[in-house]
Design brief:
Strand content: 5-15%
CATH topology of the domain at 11-103 and 458-487 and 511-523: Pantoate--beta-alanine Ligase, Chain: A,domain 2
Biased composition (Gly residues): 345-355
Structural class: alpha/beta
Radius of gyration: 31 Å
Order of helices and strands: HEEEHHHHEEEHHHEEEHHHEEEEE
Protein name: ComE operon protein 1
Shape: elongated
CATH superfamily of the domain at 11-103 and 458-487 and 511-523: GSPII I/J protein-like
Distance between the termini: 69 Å
Helix content: 25-40%
Pfam family, one: T2SSK_1st
Main location: membrane
Number of strands: 14
Keywords: Cell inner membrane, Cell membrane, Membrane, Protein transport, Transmembrane, Transmembrane helix, Transport
CATH architecture of the domain at 11-103 and 458-487 and 511-523: 2-Layer Sandwich
CATH class of the domain at 11-103 and 458-487 and 511-523: Alpha Beta
Largest sheet: 6 strands, antiparallel
Amino acid sequence: MTVRRGFALILVLGLLVLLTLLAAGLAFTVRSEVNIASDFADRVRARYLAQAGLHYALQQLMQDGIGVDGATDVWATELRSRDAQLNFADGQFFVRVVDETGKLNLNTADRTTLVAFFTQLTGDSALAEELADSILDWRDSDDTPNPMGAESDYYLSLPQPYRAKNAPFDSPYELLLVKGMTRDLFYGDPQRGTPPLTDLVTTFSAAPNVDERGQPRVNINTATREQLQSALGDVLTPSEIDAILRFRDGGGQQRPFGGTPPSNQPLTPQSPSGQFLPPSGQPLGSGQRPQPPSGQPRPLQRPMGASPSRGVPSETMVPPPASGNAPSGTPAQRPSPMQTPQQGGRPGGQSGGQGQRRRIQSPLDLLAVLPREKLIAVWERLGTDEAPLQYGVINLNTAPAEVLASLLPENPAAAEDIVAYREQHGEFQSVGELLNIPSLTQSELRQLVSRVTVKSAVFRIRAVGVIGNRKVVHLIEAVVQRQPATAPSAEAPTVNEALTVSETLGSEAAVQPVQFIVRYWRER
């Protein structure tokens, strides 16, 4: 009996141990499942917090006036849910919006600009030429390499072979595949103050072809007197508008009476009739033009009623140019000057003069007939084409010094002066304010004004959703193009179509609802 009782006790104890192990295993499994479910729920919450941050950034971009974009705008600061008084229990979002138009566009920059850009970053002109040629070969459509570049033959010979893309860049990270690029150069060195290339270059940038009021610019080459009067009449006098038409129609370059010299020098004496006199005080002969003495530029005076608005044009958007093309409005894309006079230049449909009609390349040409201050005031209202977007231009207000210097390889001090000007005077309200930079020569101005802007239509948004003390983090990075919601898109979005929607505020918040086209999308 004693043996049987001992065996029963051992059996019962064994069963208890087994049941305990089973219960512990079950508890561990349940706890693991609960943790997995909780972690999944936190990740879902973090993802939706990131999406909330993205849409909050879109809202800020929509409320921003389209006339001027700069580093002092609300969207340019770090956006936080708590600062916006949006409480999400133990979660929050952080958003950073970057102006892509303030960067150098890898798909539109020419060889000279690329060489200047990489020379100042590396200090090695030979490496800069190799990188420039390799970038051009990567984005072009042929298999013929540039002198220091590379095509598929080179890349196929590498230990891990691949082919040259022969198409435009889709992401700056493609530079890591280009001959001559190193990880140290691409990612930068914070200790030496070298920024990563992702802060300096982009693959898609554009600016709306509108004035400071958000209205479509008037095409100075085709506009009638009535159109010029409607667009410029609050700044220019009728005689100054007539002078523009006479200049465009080849009728002469005499500035209207009562104007001021279009240079950075003080006024010269004038005769009673308004004619400018040389320093001697004697009238000039026919066909002669005075040369004002040197002096300091006067500060910009903006006209009344020229404050930016949120209005935007309603033209159809067009896709960016093919790889390798110069930005819209650059000399390489401009048509040749017109050779025949056209009617409609002066009131009554009369030709503006006896000469051949001029093709105005930029508002800078009007410096021959308009005072400098007034030209600056109307600069943003004048265009030389009717395209809704300008591709590849660089925003003077958001471009870092390294990008600006690449546009002025022969005069890097002028790039520093531009940065100092915007720090001292605030954001550039007009490209014409470059006339206030004394270190810029006329030839540099002529090359620069068609490559820069004060606006942007493309932004990179990085939205981060955080749960707890950074226990769970979700990142959404997107490049979006801002355009009017009423304008039909020329191309359908290809990435994350669900977010290519109109973000509409009430009529009190925006003059027009706008639409955001997704150009790039990444989540992790």
